[in-house]
Specification:
The complex is a heterodimer of chains A (427) and B (135).
Chain A lengths: L3 H11 L4 H8 L3 H8 L7 H11 L3 H6 L3 H14 L9 H7 L1 H30 L1 H25 L6 H29 L12 H10 L6 H4 L13 H20 L2 H10 L4 H8 L3 H8 L11 E7 L4 E5 L16 H6 L6 E7 L5 E12 L10 E10 L9 E2 L28
Parallel strand pairs in A: 3-6
Antiparallel strand pairs in A: 1-2, 1-5, 3-4, 4-5
Helix pairs in contact in A: 2-3, 6-8, 7-8, 9-10, 11-13, 15-16
Chain B lengths: L3 E5 L3 H13 L3 E5 L5 H8 L3 E5 L7 H10 L8 E5 L4 H10 L3 E4 L4 H12 L15
Parallel strand pairs in B: 1-2, 1-3, 3-4, 4-5
Classes of the chains: A alpha+beta (427), B alpha/beta (135).
Chain lengths: 427, 135
């Protein structure tokens, strides 16, 4: 239904202009304007231009309402806020009536999502910096020891002199250790005040945009092929997003959500089982699994796609995995798959830590003929799906790392460079 | 006979403090600092309960708990899990693996004594225990 008339009425009331006065200013009767405002008469052309001018608005805004992309971002902001008090049904009206405020809401939501992603990246990095993890563990241990020991000394029960001396010495040792560790931690986190803002590559920009919906693309699920304009994206990122959406659309057509989701659930989100059951390529099934809408029982699933040179083309991280596109550990199963195209690899990967982090990985490399013909080298693309694994350590688990500079595995045969121990503390 | 508590923890001063307060409460406390050989110690010691740290050298407390629950002789042995990591994920994992109580560091002495008494003390039979002391 065309809501142009409703928008005219809303803006007229906002501007506190009487219906009679507005009608008079554009040379029509008040009763005719009343019919227009209740969407009982279609409006366009010169009259729409005149009414927009009288209301001080862009005619396109009155005719088309708010930009669909903007409304979508506002709805995403409302759902992310998880607030039942947000009048989500009126989002389009709000965007049409107050476009400036609407852009501000959408921009702030984008900014929050970007900051959350940045925080997640930093959290992953912190989680996998062994020196930092050791230092933080040392702080908590020292505080625990001091608190417990001090409680013994200040309690009502009498403590004999030998134990008192021993506990005093323990508190002194712990306090000294705490002071040293605290000083080192402050130096570690003391970033320069004038540090340059982080600039993202077009790929990272695109992944940041996708992460707002967990890589799920509702418009493409509904059959849309076009990518909505996002003014926040650079031209390079917008191009990459359009490519992503085109492939997403093709995947959604091949594996419609209505049949794919129940099959994925029934197979406990195991890509090999879903692939066998639905008769579709494993890489396509893994891409679909990594872009499912949020489900109560679905585990977080990460995705890594790389080319024959091992360069990451798409990265959706999973909590705890500590993946970054630079300096990936060559022992990840995706690189095993790259060496044997067409053959699926399933392995448990283990990241160092106490306790260690275990991930179930499925990977496969596909050979894509070069578009110029078989005399040209084929293009190879490898895809890996990751999920957290709380089960026991597998006998054939693959020890991987978050990159050589952060990895504490000193005897790793795949090490490219020494580890950078950024927090030199003896605990 | 005094009830025996096996404390598996690698921080010497925490070991000393916990050992002191539990001994004062009438428990016999044995200690062990290494994750890799913890199960050997459990089999040899046959304690009435275990206080188990998560971050241990050699093997994590989660893996030790998994081993405990897999062995018939220790499948129902009361375990109080102690960790510096209070994340919900760790809490859920500890509960799923069969920890009776999950406590985060720093803890209060009174709380840890109360939990040990509740698990194996004379006054509170096992089973009448809150599963998460820090929730």
């Amino acid at each position: 239904m065309d809501r142009t008339g409703s928008r005219i009425r809303a803006r007229r009331l906002d501007a506190k202009i009487a219906q009679r006065d507005l009608a008079q200013s554009v040379g029509i009767s008040a009763s005719y304007l009343n019919l227009i405002e209740h969407d009982r008469r279609r409006i366009g052309g010169k009259l729409l231009t005149q009414l927009a001018a009288a209301l001080g608005l862009d005619p396109a805004l009155l005719a088309e309402g708010a930009d669909a992309g903007l409304v979508g971002r506002m709805r995403a902001a409302a759902s992310a806020a998880d607030a039942e008090t947000v009048e989500a049904a009126q989002t389009a009206d709000l965007a049409a009536r107050y476009p400036g405020w609407a852009r501000l809401i959408a921009a702030q939501a984008d900014q929050i999502a970007a900051l959350q992603q940045r925080a997640q990246m930093l959290e992953d990095r912190i989680t996998h910096d062994p020196a930092l993890a050791t230092a933080l563990h040392g702080v908590i241990s020292a505080v625990t020891s001091i608190q417990s020991t001090a409680a013994i000394l200040t309690g009502d029960a009498k403590v004999d002199a030998d134990w008192q001396a021993r506990f005093h010495r323990n508190i002194f040792d712990d306090a000294t250790r705490l002071a040293q560790t605290s000083a080192a931690l402050i130096a570690y986190f003391d970033a320069p005040a004038n540090a340059a803002p982080v600039s993202l590559s077009p790929l990272e920009e695109m992944e940041q945009a996708l992460s707002q919906t967990g890589f799920y693309r509702p418009a493409q699920e509904r059959g849309g092929t076009a990518t909505a304009d996002d003014p926040q994206l650079s031209a390079g990122a917008a191009g990459l997003l359009a490519d992503y959406d085109a492939r997403y659309h093709a995947d959604a057509v091949a594996l419609p959500l209505a049949t794919f989701l129940p099959a994925a659930k029934a197979a406990s989100y195991d890509p090999l089982r879903v692939s066998a059951q639905m008769g579709r390529p494993l890489a396509q099934v893994m891409r679909r699994l990594a872009a499912l809408p949020a489900q109560d029982d679905a585990p977080p699933l990460g995705l890594l796609i790389c080319d024959a040179a091992g360069v990451v083309r798409l990265l959706k991280s999973v909590p705890g995995a500590g993946l970054s596109r630079a300096g990936l550990c060559p022992l990840w199963p995706i690189f095993t798959a790259l060496g044997q195209p067409g053959r699926a690899v399933a392995a448990q990967a283990v990241l160092p830590g106490t306790p260690d982090v275990r991930l179930t990985c499925h990977a496969i490399a596909d050979v894509i003929p070069h578009p110029d013909g078989p005399h040209m080298p084929p293009l190879i693309e490898a895809t890996m799906l990751l999920r957290s694994d709380d089960g026991p350590a597998a006998a054939a688990a693959v020890p991987v790392g978050a990159g050589c500079r952060l990895c504490p595995r000193t005897n790793c045969p795949a090490r490219r460079e020494p580890a950078s121990v950024s927090l030199a503390i003896t605990l | 006979m005094a009830r025996r508590v096996l404390l598996i923890e690698d921080e010497p001063n925490i070991i000393e403090a916990i050992s002191f307060i539990l001994s004062r409460d009438g428990f016999t406390v044995h200690t062990h600092e290494d994750g890799e050989t913890a199960m050997d110690k459990v089999r040899a010691q046959r304690p009435d309960m275990i206080i188990l740290d998560v971050m241990l050298p050699g093997k994590s407390g989660f893996d030790i708990l998994r081993d405990l629950r897999a062995e018939p002789a220790t499948a129902t042995l009361p375990v109080l899990m102690l960790t510096a990591r209070g994340q919900a994920k760790d809490r859920e994992l500890a509960t799923r693996l069969g920890a009776d109580v999950f406590m985060t560091k720093p803890f209060s002495n009174a709380e840890i004594c109360a939990q040990v008494r509740a698990l194996i003390g004379e006054d509170s039979p096992r089973g009448d225990v809150a599963r998460d002391a820090t929730a």
